[in-house]
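Pasting as-is:
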Amino acid sequence: MKKVIIAGVAIAVISLAACGQKTTQVAENTQAATEAKKENTVVRWNYGSSGNVLVTIAEEKGYFDEVGITIKPVSATANANAMALLATGQVDVVSNSGTTSPLQQIASGVDLTIFGGHMVNGAMPVVAKKGTEWKGIESFIGQDVAVNPTYFAFTGAVMNLGYDNPLEVVNWKVYSNYDEALAAVQRGEVKYALMGTEKNYPISQMDDIEIVSWHSEVMPNYSCCRMECQTEYFNNNKDVIKNVIKALLRAQSYYETHKDEAISLHAKKINATPEFVAAYMNNSHYLVSVDPLKNSVLRAWGILDKTGYLDENAKNININDHINTALYEEALAEAEKDYGSENPDFYKKMKAFFNENDI
């Protein structure tokens, strides 16, 4: 009987010890998780009033948290202002300021690195009065158009027709915003106008205006918005940027298989209606991708240089030195290893896209 009691006591002691070890381990894990959360790297990010759906998803689904990143939004009122914030170190990453603006900054001597992307194509419509003929970019020749010629896809497309100086064969008119450009079409001051992504919904409600083409039809994969940071920040924070890319890749994978949910999440994020967001997101001319799109950026640099929209200093700059694809390629490989089981086809597609657009 005594032996049984002693054995029971021994079991109880062992059980209590094991319980104590388990409790201690849980406490240590909790403390480690708390400390890890405290050590999250804050990335100051400008993504404009229209937001960045991949950032939205990565935040909502906890993808940034999992890689130790916290996003702090920094507002700017225009692309130029966002670039000024970046140049002066008041923001770490800019993702929604097009391709022209960062390239012009680089040409002027600001040391930036393009390391990824947001929109490849932004569902930007070309509009005209209903019934207006459209035969392609040749319809611009000799016409008044409300398109800023810094939109290199259009000047580049005109050059592809055989015109050496696209600024001479089209009357490019610059308006203060898309609303003014749209009003100019309605008044008959211009025949065609380029609209921003956010204008898809209001245009769909208009009786006198129609969409005749799209920015991405004029030049496929024109590179709508790149992700860039100061080169010093890039060099000093490569692990941070790689984790940002991995989280965004995972978000892109989710976006492509959960479009309706993405629309709802992003509408809430930017205080818009789902109908407003769906008007551009449910559109074949809207394409988001984390890929740096190097070849398109190089094409844009060449067009902007030929048309005189880069600083003279551009001739002394090798733009390849300001586009980093190696870190993205590394992040893509790691993301596939860590998250590939969630959507294997997505990562195969992204590797093929990289081979086509960055090598």
